[in-house]
Amino acid sequence: MNKSQPIRMCISCRERQPQKNMLRLKMADNEIIAYDGSGRSFYLCDVCSKNQKKIKGLIKRFKQDEERFLKLLEELIKNG
Fold this sequence. Notes:
Number of strands: 5
Number of helices: 3
Structural class: alpha+beta
Helix content: 25-40%
Order of helices and strands: EEEEEHHH
């Protein structure tokens, strides 16, 4: 039997995609970090993770340091 991938929703555009195609993040101490296996998480799709307008919106929405957040996204995209 073929097991299908779970479908998750992007926090930015609300589009639903397979979980494997999305970045999984979480809030910890008022900072967005890569999901580490514990706590609540949220997903960001590939398109939104490379869209400057969407990124700026997330930075403002979650009150993040822009330079640190951009570095985190770059690292997560590069490492898969």
